[in-house]
Design brief:
Structural class: mainly alpha
Helix content: 55-70%
Radius of gyration: 19 Å
Largest sheet: 2 strands, antiparallel
Shape: globular
Number of strands: 2
Order of helices and strands: HHHHEEHH
Strand content: 5-15%
Strand order of the largest sheet: 1-2
Number of helices: 6
Distance between the termini: 25 Å
Amino acid sequence: IKIMEKLDSIIFYNIDKAIRAYRNYAQRQLKENGFNITIDQWLIIKAILENPEITQNEIGNLVFKDNASVTRIIELLVKSEFITREVHPNDRRKTNLNVTKSGKKIIEKVQNLIENNRSIALENVSKEELEIMNSALLKISENCINTKK
């Protein structure tokens, strides 16, 4: 009988734990600094800014969210006037998403905080460790995406 390994020795548990700890920390920082936006909302605004013709499905793939979550977040962003949504002129099933001036402004304002959050989270992690970790994570992703088994 194989003895069960401890959770904190499982790499995927530790990856998930690190991501959740970082997201909780980053969200707390947004709130404490008076930003009325969530990490997910920030990610979606950024995705639209970087990919002006992006579809809702593509946003979901980019930020690892299901379609229902993306729809809900977009609704909130429209209500907050960070983005606008218009029916595509040539295809009524599609919508054009555009970031408003206030959406661009909040992305700019939050940018410094995000960079500060990252530097705090990565404190005592060397450049070499980061490069190795990044390389290993990319390999894990590739292995899972390209597996035929």
